[in-house]
Amino acid sequence: MRLISYDHQGHAAIGVVKSADANEFIALNATGSSFPGDMTELLASPGGLAAVKAAVANAPAHAVKPLAGIKYLPVVPRPPKIVCLGLNYADHAKEGGHEKPEYPSFFMRGATSQVAHNQPIVRPKASTKLDYEAELAVVIGKHARHLTRANALDCVAGYSCYNDGSIRDYQRKTNQWTIGKNFDATGGFGPWLVTPDELPAGAAGLRVQSRLNGKVMQDANTNDFLFNVVESLCIITECMTLEPGDVIITGTPAGVGYARTPPVWMAPGDVCEIDIEGVGVLVNTIVDES
Question: Which domains are assigned to the chain?
Answer without folding.
Answer: 2-73 (no CATH), 82-288 (3.90.850.10)
